[in-house]
Amino acid sequence: MQSSNPPSFFHNIRSTELSGFRVRKRAHINDAVSDITEIGAVAVEHCGEETPPLAISFCKTSKNSHILAVSDEDGYLSLFDTRRKLSSSVSHQENADKARVCEWVAHHNAVFDLCWIKGDTQILTASGDQTMKVWDVQEKKCIGALTGHTGSVKSMCSHPTNPNIVVSGSRDGSFALWDLRCTSSSKSWHGELCIGSTAVVKRAHLSPQAKRIRRTKAASMSITSVLYLKDEVSIATAGAVDSILKFWDTRNLRSVVTQTCPHPQSTEKERRLHGVSSLSQDLNGVFLSASCMDNRIYLYNVLQLEKGPLRSFSGCRIESFFVKSAISPDAAHIISGSSDGHAYIWKVNKPQEDPLVLESHDGEVTAVDWCPFEVGKIATSSDDFTVRIWNTQSSYCSSMRSPSSIRRRVMAIPSAECNKLMMNEPSCLTKDPDSLFTSNEVLAQSDSSNTITMPNISTPEGQKKKFSGSDLNEAFEKTPEATLKSPSSVLNPPSSIKRTIRDYFLVAS
């Protein structure tokens, strides 16, 4: 038996790259394309057969954030290195061969969603075969199959601090909670270790009147998107049946904590006209975006849900539930796919401005994602069987900052300094020895009018406490205790005054 673990395949990827810092390209003055540059496109195909991509997701750690996972209609899971130099003079297939790290058949059915967990060493896949699977990325081996849904699994999200806890939403109208540590002795048809759900809420998005309809009409009750909120106990769900977002407390799933919709005064019939295709939240859990089938994207403050959306963004066409949107980690921008073959980017604080349009795709643009650590890098996928990588290097996204820098500053700086941070003063990223991207580059000075003002995250009790030297040291440590004691999110105050989303809303009796 070997005494040492084999090196991670991510290490092997890094070893093939040139050492040294990457140099940013200069922006072209008075050039319309200077707002955004297409890095390249890769084809999604297997054995010469093209297939539409359905979900994409960048790795979540700084050292691996350039790795993009892509799932498709044929059940494959592919990993691409987005730092490989892609050429516009060769075919998309050649680019794919160059950038592809590995691929394997994850399911014998379409894979609708992906979720990286445990430091990017594992990835979850959600499929039309009514299961989810946990994969060891290095070994490309399934280490668990989550079984129990009776419809395609459309969405999933891991717990913000405990990667063993997962929530999923299905076409069967239910959402379920799972604990990856709770394995059973039974195995799936393919010999995989089965994991059962710990809790299930059925027909979660049906009104009392709708629950009396015939079962043959139940297809419209699909749960299209689920999110685990940053307070660590609350879940947001959305469905195909209407535009209502529901919020649940995982400690008591018998009733909804609260709910909201784009037009709170609208009638139930009006709300049923438009479902929601996707939900996303920013890094700090303050804002939540919802793509609605009325061709609009709505932005909510999770602590002011009773007021409805803060603002809405229009210009894209959302004609299928495959069209997704995502808010950037710093909550400064929103990107969305569109049925017209384009992708759109809006400034969150300027919803009235025309969005930036990305025009290279030839089919409906579906899944989109922001790279969490390489500022300005985004990915889009389309029914034209390609995934395209883009880079925003101009003033359009100059206000974007590294999520790691935001997290460090919020955790380590006293309340008075945090207020200055929320006003978006210019910052410089600190060098991370584990990072593969140019983390020591100075970001362009931000325009405070282009950033959304974050709410005051302190509480009356918290304002009385001072940040001592030991507190600062604890904030920089990566321990769960230190994280709980630092106000890293508006929904995660110090443990002595721990509150959840339930504390902000009156629960119906």
Summarize the structure.
With 509 residues, the protein is mainly beta.
Question: Could you walk me through the main structural features you see in this protein, from its secondary elements to its overall organization?
Answer:
With 509 residues, the protein is mostly beta strands. Helices cover 11% and strands 33% of the residues. The strands form seven sheets. An eight-stranded mixed sheet has the order 8-9-10-11-15-14-13-12, with no helix packed on it. It has a four-stranded antiparallel sheet with strand order 1-30-29-28. It has a four-stranded antiparallel sheet with strand order 4-5-6-7. The longest helix has 10 residues, at 403-412. It is globular. The relative contact order is 0.11. The model is unreliable at 1-34, 214-219, 403-451 and 454-497 (pLDDT under 50).
